[in-house]
Fold this sequence. Notes:
heterodimer, A: 298 residues, alpha/beta, Rossmann fold, 2 domains, 10 helices, 44% helix, 15% strand, B: 128 residues, five-stranded parallel beta sheet
Amino acid sequence: MARLLSHIERGQGNGGPIRIPSPDAGSPAFTIGITGAPGAGKSTLLGSLLAHVAQQDVRAAAVAIDPSSPISGGALLGDRVRMQSVSTDPRIFVRSMASRGRAGGVSDMTRAAVRCLHACGWPQVFIETVGSGQVDVDVSTIADVVVVVLNPGAGDEVQVFKAGLMEIADVFVINKADHLGAHVLRSDLNGLIASLPAGQVRPDVLETVATSGQGIGELWESVSENLRQAEQSGELARRRSRRSARELVEVAQAMLKRQIDAATHTAMFADIQSGVVSGDLSVWEAASRLLRAIPMEH
Amino acid sequence: MADTNTRILIAKTGLDGHWRGASLVSKALRDAGFEVILLGMAKPDEIAQAVVDEDVELLGLSIGGHIDVVERIVESVRQRRPDISIFVGGVVPPWAARKLEAKGVEVYPPGSQLPDIVAAARRLTGLV
Lengths: 298, 128
């Protein structure tokens, strides 16, 4: 399966579709997103969480995404180091992935990897990611439940507000809760939560000390409860449907972009473009003409 | 930016707790376009598991002590991934270097130049 994941990483980049069998209907599969600023303790937290669920005989996989360098294209993937002791448990699978230029950190490649893991017998898949800002809002495009990890004293409550995280977070975790300022962050978060529109489900606020395992059991309970309630209320199905629609649009846009990029080398393109340069065509008319002229191959 | 990037695993073994080399090598490889998975101080079974699950093409070990541990790692990794290339860096006495080289492992003692190590990584992963 590790080889299949590598194939997916290579194949998706070239637009080649890969047939991944759907998990058996009736065996539930969930995706849990974990995001937060660098240094918040996401990997350590995830390592503790994986150890906790493994003890309950749950099979879980983690995909840890780190940003690729925009200059060299390379990456330092340093999340696995905090999960390495649990990685040898046969119930746990850990994979590191570089973002490869996708700004949000989550890509069509990630989605394919998650489907592959679900299909290969890992019903719980955790995605750990940090976006180009402080946190990764894109994680909501892949996760059934979103966990946002914050630290006391880091000005995180302002970031939460600015980054629009209140709309996507299902669980807030104050990690390093043994540090000064934890209670201030908690009350600031509760204040933000209280101002949410009535009827919107309130996110949980938990405290953990990932390095000692404190609060990990409660975190797993909160995540499980969120999934249970979302399933029962139909919210899970609604989210998945929205995500599926969004994914369809993204994949279609990517296919169209490739066809347009390919067309730029043709005489037809040069022809249309010269019409814009000479003033015969507005760029809008030219673009319409270009789109009509592109042979649609799918 | 390449759509297909070569993945390398770098791990530390033995008694080493302070060698900057692994950190410098990892960054140089990143700057050369590789995706480097960092393991820090890791046990032999953790390294072997990582090599399999991360499906890397090259394993780099930073050595700071017991050569027999290194040999164990090489054996257990090769059992699960016979095709993988391995190189090591750090304090390796000449007799140990000979033993490792005889097993097809490339050895880079202190004083090895970063460009040489990066070039070796390219060659060992078939990029050259």
